[in-house]
Structures are given as C-alpha cells and as structure tokens.
Design brief:
Layout (H helix, E strand, L loop, with lengths): L10 H11 L9 H13 L3 E4 L5 E5 L11 E6 L21 E4 L2 E4 L6 H14 L9 E6 L7 H5 L9 E4 L7 E6 L1 E10 L2 E3 L3 E8 L4 E2 L11 H16 L3 E7 L5 E2 L3 E7 L2 H18 L8 E7 L4 E3 L1 H13 L3 E5 L7 E12 L3 E10 L2 H17 L2 E9 L9 H14 L4 E5 L4 H8 L4 E4 L4 E2 L7 E3 H17 L1
Parallel strand pairs: 3-6, 3-7, 7-23, 8-22
Antiparallel strand pairs: 1-2, 2-6, 4-5, 5-25, 9-20, 9-21, 10-17, 11-15, 11-16, 12-14, 13-15, 18-19, 19-20, 24-25
Bound molecules: zinc ion.
Zinc ion binds next to helix 3.
Amino acid sequence: MSYLIQNRKPASVFRFFEDICAIPHPSYHEEKVADYLCAFAADRGLEYYRDDLHNVLIKKPATPDRKDAAPILFQGHTDMVCVKTADSTIDFMKDGLSLYIDGDFLRAKDTTLGADDGIAVAVMLALLDGELSSHPALECLFTAAEEVGLDGAEGFDYSKIFARKMINMDSEDLGIITAGCAGGLRSTLTKTCERIPVKGECLKISLQGLFGGHSGVDICSGRANANKLMGRMLAKWQKAEGEAHLISLNGGSKDNAIPSICEAVIATADAQKTTALIEQTASQIATELAKDDSGFFVTVTPVQAPEMMFSTADSAQLIAILATVDNGVKEMNYNIKGLPEWSRNLGVITTTSDEVEFVFASRSAIESRLDASIDELDALGRITGCVTKHYSRYPGWDYAPVSPLRDLYAHAYREITGKDAIVDVIHAGLECGIIVSKLPDLDVISVGPDMRDVHSPDERLNLSSVEIFWQTIEKLIEMV
Ligand SMILES: [Zn+2]
C-alpha cells in the first residue's frame, strides 16, 4: 500500500491510520478491523484477546528498564459513523475511504473520515509496534460498537485488565482534558393508530433548513428541534381546524442528533386556510430562532390523498405528544457554568402503516434523573396510548476531584506546548462511564487530537495536532 501522508512524525501513527481507513469498519461490522488487530498482535508475538463483540485487547510487556512501573491502559473504539454526501457512491460495507489532504487537515472524499476514533486505534498500534524505547506494561483496549450505544465497552470482560490508569482517546480537542461525562439512555414511544377513510384535502408540511447538531454537546446551543417545531405548528392548526387528521409524521434520522427536518402529511377541510395558517406560524417562528437556524423554511404543498388517515382521537394524541413532550435542556449543572446536566432530545419520528414511533435520547450524569426521564415518558405514553421501551442505558462518569493521571497529562502537555490544558466535563456519552462503572478504582482521562465536524462528511483531522498529541503521550509515558 502506498501512503498519502509523508514527512509527519511518527510515520507509524499515520501509516496505521491509513491502513484502518482502507478497512471497512461501520458500527456492528468491526470484524475485519478486529482481524487486522489480531493479525498485527500475532505477527509481533504480543498477547491478545478477542471476544464475540469484536473487542480486542493487546498487551505489550514493559521494557526492562520499566519493569517496576505500573501498567497503563489505552483505549479507543474501532467503529466509525458512516455518513456520506448525496453524490458519494461509496459502499461502507465493502469500500475503503478515499483520503485527501486539505491544508493541515486530512479528510475523506464525500464521507466521514472515522478519525473518531480511528486515530486512537492508530496511536495504540504505534505504541504496540515499538515506537517507544522505554515504557511500562501497555494494555491497549480496542472496543467495538461505541457509536450505537457503547455496546462493546459494556460487554467486555474487565477481569483481563490490570492497569489502574486509563487514557481514553475519544476526545476531539487537543488542548482539552475531558474529566467527566453524562450518562444516557434511549427511549421509544410507539403508538398504534386507527386508520379511517380520508376526508378533505391533503397537504404535505415540510420543515427544513435548521442547523441540527449533536444532541449532547449542542443541546444548549439554542438550535431548534424540527420535530418539536412541527408539533407547535400542528397544535396551532388543530385548534383552528377542530377535528384534525394526520396521515403521516416523519422527522430526523438519529436519536442522538437534533433533527433539522420534519415532514407531516395532513388532511384538512380547508387547504387554503390551513396553508395560510401554517405559513404565518412558520414566519413567526423564523423571527424567534437563533442565528444558526437562519436557513429555516417551511413549504406546504397539496398532495394526492391516500385512502386512509388517522382517527381524530389518535391524531390528537400524536399532536399532544409532539407539542408537549419536554425537550432540550431540563436542568443546567449547578457547579459547572454553561454545562447542561439533564436533557432530552426527540430525535426521530417514523410512521409505518399504522404505527408512529417517537425516539428519544435522554442524558444526565445523575442516575435518578435518568430514572425520572423514564418515568416521565412512561406517564406520557400511558395517557396517549403508547407502548414505551427504554434501552441502551449507560452510566455517566463523575468528575474525580483528585486524578494523578490528569495532573500528569496536564504536565506533559505543558512541557510539549508551553500551554495549560483545559479540564472539561461534557454533556455527552463516553465509554469511560461504563469502564469506570466496571473498574471503580480506575484513574481516567479522555484526550485526543483536533478533529472537526465528526459524524459528518466534513469530518477532518488536524495533522499537526496529531504530532503534538503523540509527543504529549510520549512525554507522559516517560514520566509515568
Ligand atoms: Zn467516538
């Protein structure tokens, strides 16, 4: 294989990263990358372990001069979010990525790059490959299925880990040490609706152009949720119409993204009046929105009437869920300024023949608040005739006031850059929460080089920051 990135240090990190980009590795399809990791370990005579989830642990003994030093655990996930532009013809199950360099950034043509978290995989491989001449025992844990609910980290057998210091490399800002994160869970409310013959004219209301974003880190950005705005417009229309009838509701595509689009098809007695009302409400909303959402617009178009529509009672319950469910930031953190503590995102709505499903992501570092999120949605489900389901729950990672590893990394970072790293706690999930719940005496930090727009085709990895990140890790290992 010929390599794109030249003259960067250490070459092995960039070479391993390019190797990984050539291997398809969507979430739940980590088997090929796990094969690669096991072959890597076998080739070098390193001890390795692989489980049914395709998690891989590789260990490298200490160099003779560091025999007495405590082992250290490095960790990152092998799966990537696969998103492409409308023009891309890539098959993420079969094809490697087409990499290119854009200034100081590495990108993939029309797709996500998977630097989240392929760069962690590459750094661990470089460490295991013998890039450092002196180090304590290294344990490198490559987890699967992080992006789809942290399943790999949840299912791993931690009795195989001896280190009590862990560096997770799933953060995206070189100058930031992440030291805590929220827990979360997903919930669905599913309503089976009665269909009755269509009366009146049918309209498609299409809400577009919102900015969207990550349902954790961007939840307090002030950006609007397309599904919730649709609820507001439909509630207004229902009041004017009296007997409102929905035909379908579809919005968003991921539970952990703030939805930027939503579409409703409705049946109305007066299409002209309804169109005017929706357009008027949309223009009112447009004046209220944050600057990020300046692309917001709504179209109302007549559509051919299908045969059936939802009954009045079921339509009213659907509109009630959409319009009233608590969404966005519920509580801010009382101790850390600007940090959301408890939130909910109505990410996805899907209509199939007679069912409408609402998918939510709730987050909090406090377990009893996640319990309360469940109780609230169950209560709403009960009065609206929905079946509720809660799944993919993972614990938060509490900020530890004392962390020798954090101090050590901060010291190493200062030595390399002359700058102070910022210690931060985030309102998003990291595998650290699960791993700490399994190994409570683990001292943990989460760090990484600079990445931008992860989970989108604009994802890019800053090459210089990878070099500095490596030097910081090298320095830390020297001092540990
Ligand atoms: Zn990640």
